[in-house]
């Protein structure tokens, strides 16, 4: 076996998209993870971190490891797989940090092995990394990270995904305040049971959101981006969250909500100019609270993880 290598990039992502807990996600353009993967004779996994972000030194605690193991097990071959993390989204950012790492790793592996698996199968492998970090095999980050665009997970047993069309004028603005929200903690605060009235409201919003993308109806998308199940419990992790939402609405945001498990917050709009205006609202909000932050203005990335030079 030749010791060759492949680099791959996988985009950051916004999971849930308000009402679609664990079943909706979209890929962001321009921000993500880059890894380099090589294979040689042997059996095992090595991970080297050359990014400027601190990562676990124990490979068993790195989300890349279970994703790589799932890939190699399905491949039915043994090899020494070495993964070098070159560029990394900050862990715990709420924009799919773990998903981007797992996605980039399996996409690079697939290229190294002459593409034995479909992108849909790669999503299943990358989900193993999500299970390590959160305790559940969810795909609302890894699916858009690998497939790109906006992805709807109709079901998980078996995994059934639908990539939706995205209106040309759909823009997303994301702020990542530099505070820590642990994914497991963010899941722990969620209710174990949901009142029927709330469930019906949420089902209607998810259906409306999918229909809005399918029809290119921006008004329907905006009306449907309402979360009555998760947001009320997670917003307490984000300082002055309700105040930020009000500011964004007054500035013309079509909708806003928590990205994934937080602490990032996203807002959607219909123009680049409006998206940049919302970015300033976000930045000023957290600056006033003395919280460092990063802001991203993005189209939805139509293509997911890819091999790069």
| Count of β-strands | 11
Overall body shape: globular
Give, in order, the helices and strands: EEEHEHHHEEEHHHHHEEHEE
Largest sheet, in brief, is: 7 strands, mixed
The overall pLDDT, averaged over residues, is 94
Distance between the termini: 22 Å
What is the CATH C level class of the largest domain, in words?
Answer: Alpha Beta
Which architecture name of the largest domain does CATH use?
2-Layer Sandwich
Total individual domains: 2
- How helical, in percent, are the residues? 25-40%
CATH topology type of the largest domain = Ribosomal Protein S5, domain 2
Q: Which band does the percent of strand residues land in? A: 25-35%
Low-confidence runs:
none
Number of helices: 10
Supply Rg: 19 Å
Tell me the quaternary state.
single chain
Helix-and-strand structural type: alpha+beta
Commentary on this structure:
This protein is α+β, with helices and mostly antiparallel strands and 309 residues long. The chain folds into 2 domains: 5-164 and 302-308, Ribosomal Protein S5, domain 2 (2-Layer Sandwich); 171-299, Alpha-Beta Plaits (2-Layer Sandwich). 37% of the residues lie in helices and 26% in strands. It is built from 10 helices and 11 strands. The chain has helices at residues 64-75, 97-112, 119-134, 142-147, 183-188, 196-215, 218-224, 231-234, 241-250, 272-288, and strands at residues 5-15, 24-40, 44-49, 80-87, 150-156, 159-164, 171-177, 255-258, 265-269, 293-299, 306-308. Strands 1, 2, 3, 4, 5, 6 and 11 form a 7-stranded mixed β-sheet that branches. A 4-stranded antiparallel β-sheet has the order 8-9-7-10, with helices on one face. Helix 1 (64-75) runs parallel beside helix 2 (97-112), helix 2 (97-112) packs antiparallel against helix 3 (119-134) and helix 6 (196-215) runs antiparallel to helix 7. The longest helix is centred in the middle third of the chain and has 20 residues, at 196-215.
């Amino acid at each position: 076996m030749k010791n060759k290598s492949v680099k791959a990039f996988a985009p950051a992502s916004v999971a849930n998209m308000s009402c679609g807990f664990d079943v909706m996600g979209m890929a962001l353009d321009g921000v993500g993870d880059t890894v380099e993967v090589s294979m040689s004779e042997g059996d095992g996994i090595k991970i080297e971190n050359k990014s400027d972000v601190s990562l676990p030194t124990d490979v068993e605690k790195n989300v890349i490891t279970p994703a790589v193991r799932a890939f190699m097990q399905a491949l039915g071959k043994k090899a020494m797989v070495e993964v070098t993390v070159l560029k990394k989204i900050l862990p715990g950012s709420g924009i799919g940090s773990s998903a981007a790492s797992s996605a980039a790793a399996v996409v690079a592996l697939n290229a190294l092995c002459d593409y034995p698996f479909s992108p849909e199968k790669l999503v299943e492998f990358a989900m193993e990394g999500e299970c390590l970090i959160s305790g559940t095999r969810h795909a609302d980050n890894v699916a858009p990270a690998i497939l790109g665009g906006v992805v709807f997970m109709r079901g998980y047993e078996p995994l059934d995904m639908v990539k939706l069309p995205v209106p040309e004028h759909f823009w997303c603005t994301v702020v990542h305040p530099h505070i820590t929200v642990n994914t497991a903690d963010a899941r722990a605060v969620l209710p174990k049971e949901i009142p029927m009235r709330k469930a019906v409201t949420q089902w209607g919003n998810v259906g409306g959101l999918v229909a809005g993308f399918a029809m290119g109806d921006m008004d329907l998308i905006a009306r449907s981006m309402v979360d009555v199940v998760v947001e009320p419990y997670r917003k307490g992790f984000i300082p002055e969250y309700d105040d930020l939402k009000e500011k964004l609405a007054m500035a013309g945001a079509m909708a806003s909500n928590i990205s994934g498990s937080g602490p990032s917050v996203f807002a959607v709009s219909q123009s680049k100019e409006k998206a940049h205006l919302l970015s300033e609202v976000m930045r000023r909000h957290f600056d006033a609270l003395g919280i460092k932050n990063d802001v991203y203005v993005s189209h939805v990335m139509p293509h997911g993880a890819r091999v790069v030079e």
